Amino acid sequence: MDCNVFRSSSASGEVVSLFGGVGSGTSERPIRVALIGTFPPRRCGIATFTKDVFDRLGARPDFQISVHAIEQHGEAGARPDVAGVIRQSLPDDYVRAAREINAAAYDAVWIQHEFGIFGGPDGEMVCDFADRIAAPIILTFHTVLSAPSPRQRAIVEHLISRASRIMVMSQQGRETLIGQYRAPAAIVETIAHGAPDRPFGREAEFKARFRLGDQPILMTFGLIGPGKGLEHMIEALPAIVARHPRALYRIVGATHPNLIAEEGERYRESLQQLARSLGVEDHVAWENRFLDTEELLDQLEACDIYVTPYANLQQATSGTLSYAVALGKAVVATPYVHARELLAGGVGLIVEPQSSRALAEAVNGLLDDPERLTATKERAYAAGRRTIWPEFANASAALVRRAIRPRGREVRMGARPGLSGVWTMSDGCGMLQHSIGMVPDRRHGYCLDDNVRALMLMNIVPDLAHEERMRWSLVYASFIQHAWNPDARRFRNFMAFDRSWCEEVGSEDSNGRAIWALGQTAALAPDRELRRWALRWFDETSTIAETLRPPRSTAFAMLGAAAVLRTVHDHLRAAHILDRGGAMLFDLLQHSRRPGWTWFEARLAYDNPRLCQALIEAGLERRRPEWVEAGLEALRWLADRQTAREGHFRPVGSEGFGSDYEQLPFDQQPLEAQAAIEAACAAFEANDDPAWIDHALTAYCWYLGVNDRGVVLADVASGRCRDGITPRGANENMGAESILAFQLSHYAVLTLNRSALPDARPEDDAEAEPRDTAHPPAFA
């Protein structure tokens, strides 16, 4: 989906609308869902379920469903309904599929999970796939183990951490996920397995079709394997046949393909031998083939009693049981999870597991009393009305809608953020690092990084009373000054709440940021004495920049030097910092780039746009047009990678910081939006391309809800900002880095707007109110 950015300026502030899709424009487009699971011609219950979802939800005009099928080695067959194939055991296929799904800009990705259908031990390859998906993930857990292995538990918990919504088909499955796997209760929903909607009471018609006469028909269907407990039902037949000599037990379905691969038909043959030994061979009929759904339902209509003597009592879902109940069959079942829930209230009969005696008594009790048999069928049919496919489709559609992000949004840019969020995180020592929710968390103390950002904010906030500005500017400046370790000639970074330093030397990044803040303060602080203080400390400490090695640390120091040169045009050390850093970044870019990868390194990490920004600003100040053009080229490439196909901002996720030539979508952090905005400001200064304004506004709207999860991060009234976006939504904490990133982003965008719209009045932003069509103007 393309996203169009519209900008206008008026006395009430700037309005930015990002249009496209549901809730925007004059028409709605269907919700697009990528469905991940096995799929016909694969013969398994998950494939049948995936096909059912594809057919039922895809038939709705408001949905468009695409299947990406998990395929085993050697599988073949036409797949006309499949958009893509993931070969089960090939890790690269999961990477490729995730990339294609992200490029296709689906509104949601719905994964059918069963341990055996994905590659790796216990199907662990699904985790890497889920990590790469940007769209909201919906999970259906077809099996919820109450006693998982450590690896199985780790896989389930990892998938839960990625999910926006989780579907299970039993209440016990939901309770297990919440209680044992720590899934948030709010995102776990129970939706009963869908079932067909057919008329009631057509046994005679279908018995005639299959030439079964009027004899009592017992039936089990589905893929055959030891867990189905069929031996117990065969052992029950002598007692049943003794009372009802014409009774016939029909076992319909092929042996499970995995079992065939391991041991052939040994299990089925053992059952046949058991029937012969008990003298009931003529009372067992075998339909040894995989039937399509419609023929399977026809076969099921011909039975009187449907039997599921399963030995595996952990089975959370049985599509065959759902079908039988919906068709109005009397059901006799062992107490596995799905049966206990679906057959409650007299819908069917629950019997002792692994007991041929109990099975025989239940079946005979129904066949002995035709009225009871009919009443049981009627109760089943009535219960089945709640699970028929139209009901399932409605519940599934609601599930998807709850998972997807809002589309189409309008936000007003001009409202000035309040500062209460900044003050709340600050005390007489400096600005605290972290919070729990909105409450400062003193356990983590302070850091230089946040205090330099806070000082930079004080330098640019307009209309702040001089006394208040100086009060807080001096607190933050004092922290920076105290952080200097003259013996090591480096800044410290981390300080405990008791004001003891946690280290003698801080990171190179924190040292680079300190030089940046000192340069910016020397250039922009409204108070002349504070500017003089900052220039003095820049002169004292900026020799650090000559030894910085990491590109980002160097870029931070370069930005401070560029600010100094814009004020003190003949400042030799600032010029030297830019010359050294500009040459280093330019050379890195030339040596690291390759086709499709226009970047300074083999990986994208944090604060990526700062490298481009520093090279552009160095080129402007040192009159090196080749640096400017190289920085612009790299920034265009990066901006393209950080723009989703739908048009919203999608920063490089922190989970991918250590991966070469890869980009993962989560977690997304406010600092990345700030860097994109301020780099776009430098780019616009270099070449006046309005595309940079669009990119800056798009990145700013990320704070206000135009993002991969549709969550509002920033509260304009207080100036607070949540700590980012996880696969599940917003990180509810509001630390200093996030608050300051939003605040600094706001003023960068306003400065850029005034550069692009010179007729806009500086006071315009003071009167505007925030407006957001999908959420109220505070946290939502």
Write a brief caption for the model.
This protein is of the alpha/beta class and about 775 residues long.
What does this structure look like?
- There is one protein chain.
- The chain has 780 residues and is an alpha/beta fold.
- It has 3 domains: 173 residues, 3-Layer(aba) Sandwich (Rossmann fold); 181 residues, 3-Layer(aba) Sandwich (Rossmann fold); 358 residues, Glycosyltransferase (Alpha/alpha barrel), CATH 1.50.10.
- Helix content is 46%, strand content 14%.
- It contains 28 helices and 25 strands.
- A 7-stranded parallel β-sheet has the order 5-4-3-6-7-8-9, with helices on both faces.
Separation, N- and C-terminal Cα atoms: 24 Å
Note the main sheet: 7 strands, parallel
The percent of residues in helical segments reads: 40-55%
Nearest-integer average pLDDT: 90
Structural class: alpha/beta
Cα-based radius of gyration, to the nearest Å: 33 Å
